[in-house]
Amino acid sequence: MVINAGKAELRLSVDNTGDRPVQVGSHYHFAEANDALDFDRERAWGHRLAVPAGTSVRFEPGVAREVVLVPLGGNRVMPGLRGKAGGAL
């Protein structure tokens, strides 16, 4: 199955600096993910995980991993979440 065809990919290293696992869902605005996750939030702005819809990625404490992000599609409005975007991206 091909997903995210034609979308620009962004690769980032993410480290869970917390003491508990963190999961981020497929269509969550990645820049607003849990503060325990250490990564370049400016570069991640307007992006989501490049994983199938309805799935998530789990970040274990003290473990760094690389993720692939793609731009959020549609009308690029992200209301709610943690309140950092609160509207158009």
TrEMBL record:
UniProt entry tagged with the keyword Hydrolase: yes
Gene3D superfamilies reported for this sequence: Urease, beta subunit
Example GO BP: urea catabolic process
GO cellular component: urease complex
CDD domains assigned: Urease_beta
Domain of life: Bacteria
Entry keyword annotation includes Calcium: no
Keywords from the named record: Hydrolase
Molecular function via GO: urease activity
Name of the protein: Urease subunit beta
Species this protein is from: Dactylosporangium sucinum
Protein's gene: ureB
